[in-house]
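Run log, item B.
One chain of 174 residues. Sequence copied directly from the ordering sheet:
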Amino acid sequence: MRKFRVNVKPTLIMGAALGTLLFSASSGGSVLAADLPEGFKAGELAPAPPADMIEAGKRVYFTKCVWCHGVDGAGDGPGADRLWPRPRNFNQGTFKIRHTASGELPLFNVNERAPDSGKNDLFDTVTHGLPGSAMPPWEGILSEEQRAQVLSFVTTQLVKDRKFTDKQESQTVL
């Protein structure tokens, strides 16, 4: 009796490709309210910060942040090799602390600065720091305005792989 052997790899690849094609065609590329995970709601992208705020944020960044995050925001500043965990690489546009779904950009709105409101993830991170890392709390060192300015610079100039103003980005908020 001969054994019949099926090459599983091409079958799995074709099945995965077909499933991805059908899923993307059915969703139309946008997140519908029915598609949201339980407890999440659809969010809106915040408006872009004004140019003067971005320029002021650049001055703050190159005074306070460049030492860890580096000139281009790649997490490769002069002090980065001595820190664990390493500083965030802003270029990739991935952030850990957020109220949005996995893989989505965190919330940032230059006009919303209420502390711990759950509406401005990046502002809260800069304000309170990240316990267990070298990221200090900047409240008391930088003014509220300076924290908003530096985040305006980071989100518009240093995040290179994604854009906070891209309408293709979705925000699913917890």
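Observations after the first pass:
- The chain has one domain: 31-173.
- Confidence is low (pLDDT under 50) at residues 11-31.
Flagged for discussion on Thursday.
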